[in-house]
Specification:
Order of helices and strands: EEEHEHEEEHHEHEHEHEHEHEHHEHE
Largest sheet: 7 strands, mixed
Number of strands: 15
Structural class: alpha/beta
Radius of gyration: 20 Å
CATH architecture of the largest domain: Alpha-Beta Complex
CATH topology of the largest domain: Quinone Oxidoreductase, Chain A, domain 1
CATH superfamily of the largest domain: Medium-chain alcohol dehydrogenases, catalytic domain
Number of domains: 2
Helix content: 25-40%
Distance between the termini: 20 Å
Oligomer: single chain
Length: 333
């Protein structure tokens, strides 16, 4: 058994250490991937802090998505089919993740990459693009007996995901109200073509948001922030709003007035991509990733801020944490 370099987390909240560990062997239904690149996502940061829905035994290699080449296949039709192919991949919930020279994962969690897509973009095909498409799927499936046109409010909108939601809203003719926290972000998004952007740091933020939310009937909210912003979002939204919380960028407690549930007909949900995908079969996921590949040159493209070798992963994480709206930070292997 050979050795490989990996970024290893020994305890929640501790710095990563570059270590030499054994190259894993794929079992039935699994593949071994020689990793090319992997992004740093908010979900990775939450996992390293011990606050994510997936828990693994320490020491562990983080990294939820990436790209690479399948170099060894376990038993089964699909592993043999992917063998030798360049793939976009997601980490198994049972094993080490993507931040290593090699990774074993289920063949079901790999998708072959079109020749039109470079391996950097391929490394970011799962988390954000699938989440963006899932949001519009959720919107479509929510009850709408009056057949009213309705829109979306999305927070942390200067992120890579937020930008995808803006572009998909335009494609599907669904109004998107983007909430950011700095004036510079307002200007960036408007320069990129966003029509409705509000700044949560403005003194009149709540009145601005309420006016535009009622005008556009944006009664479906996707919130990545949490904290005190949640109540403000509910106060601004039309009656019967659906609020989906999918992140916790604000570590403060989220408090909601009972009246928002009792008298306003509002609904509060949690959204977790892993749970959403559990209800989808492999063929649905394959169809979705093909759709992503067709849109990756435009609506679902991701801006890359910087790329680092694995040996500088700690520096990469700090740069990403302090500049999330500047684009993704990639790790190359």
């Amino acid at each position: 058994m050979g050795k490989m370099k990996a970024a290893v987390l020994h305890e929640a909240g501790q710095p990563l250490k570059i270590s030499e560990i054994d190259i894993p062997k794929p079992g039935p239904g699994e593949v071994l991937i020689k990793m090319h690149a992997s992004p740093i996502n908010p979900s990775d940061l939450a996992f390293m802090g011990g606050g994510y829905g997936i828990q693994k035994k320490y020491p562990v290699v983080p990294g939820f998505e990436g790209s690479g080449t399948v170099v060894e296949a376990g038993k089964g039709f699909l592993p043999k089919l992917w063998n030798g192919k360049k793939v976009s991949c997601a980490a198994s919930p049972k094993y080490n993740g993507c931040w290593a020279e090699y990774m074993v994962t289920s063949a079901n969690m790999c998708v072959p990459v079109s020749k039109k897509i470079n391996m950097e973009q391929a490394s970011m095909m799962f988390v954000n693009p699938m989440t963006a498409l899932a949001f519009f799927d959720v919107l479509k499936k929510l009850s709408n007996s009056k057949k009213e046109k309705r829109g979306i409010i999305n927070t942390a909108a200067a992120s890579a995901l937020g930008r995808m939601i803006i572009k998909l809203g335009k494609k599907y003719n669904i109004p998107v109200v983007s909430v950011v926290r700095r004036q510079q972000q307002v200007e960036i998004l408007k320069a990129e073509g966003a029509e409705f952007v509000v700044n949560s740091s403005d003194a009149d933020f709540e009145s601005q948001l309420k006016e535009i939310a009622h005008k556009l009937n944006t009664n479906v909210i996707f919130d990545a922030v949490g904290g005190s912003l949640v109540q403000k979002l509910l106060d601004a939204a039309p009656r019967g709003a659906h609020l989906f919380i999918y992140g916790r960028l604000d570590p403060d407690i989220c408090e909601i007035l009972p009246g928002n549930l009792i008298f306003s007909g509002n609904h509060i949900h949690g959204f977790w991509l892993a749970e959403y995908l559990k209800n989808k079969n492999f063929f649905h996921s394959l169809k979705t990733t093909r759709k992503i590949q067709s849109l990756i040159g435009n609506e679902l493209s991701t801006q890359v801020n910087k790329t680092f070798p694995m040996e500088k992963i700690s520096e990469a994480i700090e740069i990403y944490k302090n500049n999330m709206s500047s684009g993704k930070v990639l790790i190359r292997f």
